[in-house]
Amino acid sequence: MTFPAIDPTERCPCLSGDTYEGCCRRFHAGTVPAPTAEALMRSRYSAFVTGDTGYLLRTWHPSARPARLELEPERKWRRLDILSIQAGGPWDSTGVVAFEAHYREDGLAGVQGERSSFIREEGRWLYVDGE
With a threshold of 0.70, does the pTM exceed it? Predict the structure, then answer.
């Protein structure tokens, strides 16, 4: 199985309301860093959708980053719901984003919920961990 290619003119998988080109693609391409913890969380979700393990690893804080990452292509991510945001703005140094990511796998619906912690270092937001 493979991951879907996203047309830049289609709606972004993170459901921000923008096109993929105007939203997460620029972060995935490294054109600009995500300006907030929420934007990084959304772009990481989109990276799970597209199978972009390189982006996921690049945006993982070195203190917690795994040596490698294998995604499950049979898991089809369907929807992202942001439940709450604590700090994580352009002038903050830390932030927490709670979310639920909905998926289908083997014909069954599932949901993964997490409170993700982020830190901003040298102007870049990085994922630290989740509970």
Answer: yes
